[in-house]
Amino acid sequence: MNKFAKSLLAMLLISSGSALYAADSMFSQGRSIASAEQFSVLSYKDRVAAENQMLTPRLNELLPQLMAATNIDMWLIINREYAEDPIYYTLVPQPTFAARRTTMLVFYRQADGSVEKLSVNRYPLGEPYESAWAGGDLDAQWQALAQLIAEKDPQRIGINVSRDWPVADGLTHGLHQRLQEALPSELEQRLVSAEDLVVRWVETRSAEEIAVYPQVVGLARGVIAEAFSNRVITPGVTTTEDVAWYIRERFAELQLPVWFMPYVTLQRNGQGCTDEQPFCGQSGKVIQRGDVIHTDVGICYLKLCTDTQEMAYVLRFGEEEVPAEMQTALAVGNSWQDHLTNAFAVGRTGNEVLEAVIAKTTAESMITSTYTHPLGFFGHAPGPTIGMWDNQGPTAIRGDWPIYANTAYAIEGNAKVPLAMWDGQNIQIMLEQSALFDGEKIIYLAGRQTQWHVIR
Fold first, then answer.
1. How far apart are CA 193 and CA 385, in angstroms?
2. Could you count the other beta carbons within 10 Å of the beta carbon of residue 316?
3. What is the domain range of residue 143?
4. Which CATH number characterizes residue 89's domain?
5. Are 4 and 332 in contact, with CB atoms under 8 Å apart?
6. pTM
7. E strand or H helix that includes residue 442
């Protein structure tokens, strides 16, 4: 055990007289959630009004600010049925299942700073969009779009084309060609990439979204708590796959879509976990007493996505509490989180945050890896990348993006701690919690894990 871990162990023992759950007294924002039953889930019918209520202020208040900040006079979202732009559903009222035929959205920044929201579609979208043209054939639709653009005479026309940001590259090659053909040369030359606007639109959270986000994250953490309990796990019988499928099916029961298949791994003495090994868990195993188990889970609800990793310990016969060394190891993981989140500052790039946390953890002889990413409308959202699991150095383009206020992140990474009870083998503490940066500090949206889940 390194000096940092030893000092943490001593602090844990002094603070409580016992190692059991003492980490909560040392680290802020710790929260234990017992079950998803603690949280309500809206029906599909009721989600429509909630999502549309959040959309309106984004379009009326946030979009004008972002178009001005990114110097875009007109923004075009052009997509076809079943080939939708990645951000199309973030812009249209629900229930919307597809961009019917060819759907064109036009956002025009007016002299007073407000933004006109127009549609050029065979099928009008209705509020909050005003129909600038409806009906007719496809050629007439493109002519109507070109005429509208000419009438508004914008100087910089943003379109969703990007080499570096997939979410900002939603205008297909065919539609891009058709747009160029429809516009006179003078207007075609005003087409510019809207990638900065797209990234800012997707990464920025509104006040209304911030208010509901803790509920979304709480549901994800609640299902993990259910899965990491004797309600689901029988030591010596249950497999890691059984637990993963419980999580998947429980979310389906709650009508909460996952954005990737949950997975569960375990670590145990004798399995091996070197300092250089990127990930130490194994799947496809029967869970035994003395095992450490881990899961990675992501859901989306009310258009907001989560990404969560938590850890559990399976008590051995005769154990009444999680061993002190295990408590210390989790505390090391919490310390890594603090070093990371303390490095957040408006204007600092993802690469600069990574450099700061590596300097801090290296000075304390911690073995850590940081791979944190933005959250929001997507689980892997655009914004500042803060390390990659396979690259603990600068990340070009995405790592150079600066941090803004009111942006959400998956605080993700791991710390390795050697355990005497495992004959010096490392345990890898893999943590990930959804959090908001409000411009001054990181706030975990539904708290964070500072106590082990315990299977008895």
1. 21
2. 12
3. 71-193
4. 3.40.350
5. yes
6. 0.93
7. strand 442-444
